[in-house]
Amino acid sequence: MGLIAPFNLPLELDALRALPSVHRVVRHLSDMKRIYHDQEAVAAILSAGDPPIYEFLELANPTSDDSLSFGLTRISPGKIGREYHMTKGHFHLNAGDEIYVGLAGRGLLVLQSRDGQGRELSMLPGSLCYVVTGWAHRTVNVGEDDLVFLSVWSATVEHDYETIDRHGFPQLVLADAGRVAVIRNERFTGR
Ligand code: S6P
Ligand code: ZN
User: Fold this and answer.
1) Are the C-beta atoms of 186 and 172 separated by less than 8 Å?
2) How many other C-beta atoms can be found within 10 angstroms of the C-beta atom of residue 169?
3) Counting atoms of ligand 1 from 1, which one is nearest the CA of 157?
4) Which ligand 1 atom minimizes the distance to the CA of 98?
5) pLDDT digits (tens, 9 = 90+) for 115-165
6) What is the rounded CA–CA span in Å between residue 61 and residue 1?
């Protein structure tokens, strides 16, 4: 459903949750269990329950090809084994850059080019990350609190999760002796 009049709203999770046109998705560990590195840790956690890892609230707005969609994402703090909570991540199939703006918490935006190069950008409250078309993006909560950010993208973008499901990302973000470490993912099969 398209939005036909100008509007404004507070950049707050509760404000978006209250809008009838918002699409809310909560991803639990069971929805993304294969993407975490430590499968023993995944199995141990799932044997005791199925924790929510993140939610996103999306206002998709395909009024026309010129429209923008936007959403708020909240990733809870925590780790699966040593790996920090993160989003599934995706490529944009068609042309479409994206802007991320950090609102709360401490994150890393993990990027992957079509030819398998990795890059990481810090996400802090008030900071902006610009994602160029062709780079897959995943967000990792490396802090002690919720990571909350705004994302804005072209409404015509189609999301490709399958490539990530199949090949993963070239890097892992882990806790290492109390610090955040980015290491090579030996199981990455893209290029
Ligand atoms: C959409 C944008 C974000 C993510 C959201 C959840 O293009 O990148 O709104 O959809 O952060 O991540 P994911 O990987 O599950 O879509
Ligand atoms: Zn995206």
Assistant:
1) no
2) 23
3) 7
4) 7
5) 999 999 999 999 999 999 999 999 999 999 999 999 999 999 999 999 999
6) 7
